[in-house]
Design a protein that fits this description.
This protein is mainly α. It has two domains: about 1-45; about 50-110. Helices cover about 75% and strands about 0% of the residues. The chain contains three helices and no strands. It has helices spanning about 5-40, 50-75, 85-100. The longest helix has about 40 residues, at about 5-40.
Length: about 110
């Protein structure tokens, strides 16, 4: 592999993290300003969809992790590369378990 390709491969994770960080910052800033404007107008805040978002993140992380595990198993067998899939899969499973333990699936009459 030539040197330019190695540099691009090395920079890809760094650039990805920076892009995700910048997008997250502006999303949070936009949400903050939106909520602040609603409060200033004296309107009622919309209900939080935190639990549904948590479940979505858990399912996506679990599926990405399982896909990576399958890919690394087929490509190289049981090697250290499997950790690249085990980490997101375990994280997603943990988030889903937290969602279930915290009562995320329960619906009350007011919702």
């Amino acid at each position: 592999m030539n040197q330019a390709a190695q540099v691009l491969i090395a920079l890809l994770p760094i650039v990805s993290v920076v892009i995700v960080g910048v997008l997250s910052f502006f999303y949070l800033l936009w949400e903050y300003r939106k909520i602040r404007m609603i409060i200033e107008r004296g309107e009622k805040l919309p209900p939080s969809r935190y639990k549904e978002s948590l479940l979505l993140v858990g399912i996506v992380a679990l599926c990405v992790g399982l896909g990576l595990i399958l890919y690394f198993l087929l490509k190289g067998g049981i090697t250290d590369a499997l950790l690249g899939g085990l980490m997101p899969a375990a994280t997603g499973l943990g988030i889903i378990i937290f969602y279930c333990v915290a009562g995320g699936g329960k619906r009350t009459g007011g919702e």
